[in-house]
Design brief:
The protein is mainly alpha-helical and about 130 residues long. It is built from 8 helices and no strands.
Length: about 130
């Protein structure tokens, strides 16, 4: 089951490269920036858009920067948790959280399970 979730997450990220709306472009850029350890705030600069223009275009697509950021974090969290070399604090920091508790709260809101429990179940599947 957890292997399927990871496959779906990877498939979802790949599908984002094929679409052309601003939310998908932002999602791709956020994933790249967070994976490189850069702050999500630099996404506007990377997309060559002002913050206001990005907000306006996202609103036209009925979404927001925070929604797109949360989606990117949710997908990346699953991928990072599958790597047993990464500690929870490292994952939290890679995703832009200042503490493990913030990351845990967010993860539970996305998947209804704490990240440590997800990791245990995922690693038991392998």
């Amino acid at each position: 089951m957890y292997g399927q979730l990871i496959e779906q997450a990877e498939k979802y990220l790949r599908s984002l490269y094929e679409q052309d709306n601003i939310a998908e472009q932002l999602m791709r850029k956020l994933a790249e920036l967070m994976a490189a350890g850069e702050a999500a705030d630099s996404a506007c600069r990377a997309l060559r858009l002002s913050r206001r223009t990005l907000q306006r275009r996202l609103r036209a697509e009925k979404t927001s920067f925070q929604q797109v950021l949360n989606e990117a974090r949710a997908v990346l969290a699953i991928n990072y948790l599958s790597d047993e070399r990464l500690k929870s604090l490292e994952i939290a920091m890679l995703l832009g959280y200042s503490s493990i508790s913030s990351f845990t709260t967010a993860f539970k809101s996305w998947y209804d399970i704490p990240p440590a429990e997800y990791r245990q179940k995922f690693l038991a599947q392998i």
